[in-house]
Amino acid sequence: MAPPSVASWRPSHSPPAGASPLLCRPEAAAPREAPRGPGSAGEAGPGGTTAAEGRLPPTPRRQRSGTALLPGEHCASAGMAARRLGGSSWQQAVALSRRCCLPGGRRERYRCSSSSTALGKTVENSEVTQEEIVLPRKKTWDKLAVLQTLASTVKRDPTAAHYMFQDDPFLTPRNAANARLYSLSKEAGKNAAKYIIKQFPQYFDKTFAEPNIPCLMPEMLTPQIEGVSEEALKERIHLRRVKDSVDLFDQLVQAGTPVSLETTNSLLDLLCFYGGGESTPEKEEEQKEDLEEPGVNASEQKAPKRQFQRGSQSSGSRWRENNNAERIFKIMPEKNAHSYCTMIRGMVKHGASAKAYDMYMDLLNERHKADVDTFNALITAVPYLKERFLERWELAKVFLNHMAQQEVQPNLLTFNALLKTLRKCGGVGRSMALPVVKEMEALGIEPSLATYDHLLFIFYRGVDLSSPGIIIEILDDVQKRSFIPQDPDDANFFATAMQVCCDLKDIKLAYRLNKAMEKGDNWKFLDMDRLNAYWSKFFSLLCMMEQIDVVLKWYKEMSLSVFYPTPKNILDLLQALDAANHLEVVPSVWEDMKQMGFGRRHDLLEELLSLMSRERHPEEIQLAFAKCAEDIKAFHEQTGREQASLDWTGSALSHIALLFSRVGRTQDAWSMMERFQQMNRIPTDQVMDEFLTCAKQTNSPDEAIKLVKLAASLGLPSSQRLKSRTEKEFELSEKQKKTLESIKSDSDSSDSDSDSDRE
């Protein structure tokens, strides 16, 4: 008898569509109770013989592993099971191998894949039912996917400084000023290295890095084309060599060599970008004119003329009269729309708004059309062209109408420029901001963070802050999205929104905003300065509205790792501790103050000493307070070349004397009492009573007598009361009694003098 063929065990139907290939099996191989004997009763074998007859078919030959397989595929599980079962259970072996066979008789196997995308598709024909395997689509992973996955498993270390700083305690910044200084120093070092490489490229012609990463290597900025030609001019324009490009252009003009319009426009682009000056890393940032008007409802409110003129002059001084850009533009034999648009954008960027408007009029007279970027620049310049709020809005509408006439499609930056102009239009801006946003949505343009920043500025500056409706709607949208940079003003949103939350005193909105900031890559919009401002406002709001335990938790997690607390933040924290009656935390706050460099600020020292000396506390806390007072005293007495000694105030002397007296440090307390007379200050009755009590506890009658002398010399009315207390509460020697009796206050001596004059 011929051995049974595996193909003869083909199922008569295909597996259900959508089932995983690993789970696809013919009906004949469905789970059932395993036969106890060789074959099952009443079931005919492949050769027509049943197991009940007692004849077993021979074991089928093993198929070679390389026959009729899909490329690279092998059903290892079935093969391993067949080898383990061996010849004793050939039915199970065949059933297992049959699970990996296709119903067409081909020796193909199902792809063993755990991917849910590999779905079986059934193609039904009249005679034969076939099944094809659809391979899953190739997944293209980002190059940083593995690193990003690993980074997501690591939590932020609340004790570590920002990654940009050196891993050295001496170079770890302790406050915002140091952080800014260190970061600028690091960038200055990078710029210095770039300058050296740029000036002396011949010394850096070898690459020692293994592997070589081109993006981390210095750029080659040395011109390769020599001579006077248009190609050399293009190369220098590409290398952003402003002065060399202008000199070479002048040489070409003097030689009578024509320069193409495209190359001349590229030179204009370079000149207008840098304002006619040389491109340097130290190019100063654009001055930000704060022309936002105070919140008023009158649409005809006139902007302050002096402020307007000051902004115009400061912005106009950056675009020099008859600079290289204007000179080259005038001598151009042919000009197109690109030439005019470049000049307009350059003039607006560098503050020559009036000249930009005149250039736009020339563009219209030449029957050219402006592009969308030019209109965006003109709309941004509107506040510098008109003084009245309504005139500004009317001029902005003129530009919008020109865009419609010239069939220029507005983009996101167009609406952001319009909202930025409405920020400087007072009540007109508040009435027209929402219609502008609706028009923006009607065109299918999604707002960016800069759009929301302008709206918050328009509706929450100088007006009633009782209605949080606008910011709630904004947060509803921001929480749903992860933004990408589309406008330079996008970076201002989170700091502005947190300031609005602080003004509204709404901690729930602040939590929602913080959650939105941490979503996706939104946190990248905050640079170091904005991040510090954001967290500073958030922490102040926490101190104002949250429970003290929550405040301290945020403080420990954020301080010196996420942001650097400002003196106002420390003051808010001290006030929060006072309100919650958690003054035992004050010594740890003082340690942080010393670490941050705030140990010499009078406002913080006064608040700190006032909280510690206001009332008595348990002995352990009082000892910690006295240690803080000792440090503060050392700060007042510290002198050096760069630090001047702090001036003592009467309140500081009183607070420190009280803190020393309550822990029995009589000598330290007396040293503070002596300073009252040295600095012409008057101690309070509480200070003198506390010191006398301290002298009694330490059995120091000499200090008590000194106190009475001090009160008498200052002419205090409490001197007699202190004298009587000393006589009653202290065991005085005869000498001490005589000394005490000889003490007379200035008032007593003045009374005796007046009596003698009467006699």
TrEMBL record:
Q: Composition bias, kind Low complexity: at what positions?
A: 25-38
So what family is this one in? Belongs to the mitochondrion-specific ribosomal protein mS39 family.
Compositionally biased intervals (Basic and acidic residues)? 724-747
Q: Where in the cell is it found?
A: Mitochondrion
Which first-to-last residue range defines the signal peptide? none
Please state what the protein is called. Small ribosomal subunit protein mS39
Report the source organism: Calidris pygmaea (Spoon-billed sandpiper)
Annotated Gene Ontology cellular components are: mitochondrion; ribonucleoprotein complex; ribosome
The annotated regions of Acidic residues compositional bias extend over 748-759
